[in-house]
Amino acid sequence: MDYVQYVLNILIVLFVYIVIVKIYMEVANYVGERLGIGQFVIGLCKKMRRDK
């Protein structure tokens, strides 16, 4: 019975970790879209390629 409980605890921790990471990614995506960070980074990469 201890092994079953141990495995269930690991699965619960894994599930909670996945949910927290998913929420964090959604928030980061929303903030990135609002601030335009993605376009800024893409523009920097294009400038670095042109300069070489």
Automatic annotation (TrEMBL):
Keywords: Membrane, Transmembrane, Transmembrane helix. The chain crosses the membrane at residues 6-25. This is Ca2+/Na+ antiporter. It comes from Anaerosolibacter carboniphilus. The keyword Transmembrane helix applies. It comes from the Bacteria.
